[in-house]
Amino acid sequence: MKEFYFPVRNNTRIHCCQWVPEGKPRGILQLVHGIAEYAARYDELAKVFTDHGFVVVGEDHMGHGGSISKDIPQGCFAEGWLTAVSDTYRLMQMTKEEYPDLPYVIYGHSMGSFMTRTLLYTYPDAGLKAAVLSGTGWMPKLVLKSGRAVCRMEGRKGMNETSATVDRLMFGSYNKGYENPRTPFDWLSRDDAEVDKYIADPLLGFSASIGLSYEMLGGMLMNEDKKNLGKMPKDLPVLFVSGDKDPVGSNGKGVTQAYEAFKAAGMKDVTLKLYPGGRHEMHNETNRAELHADVLAFLDRVLSK
Question: What is the pTM of this model?
Answer without folding.
Answer: 0.97
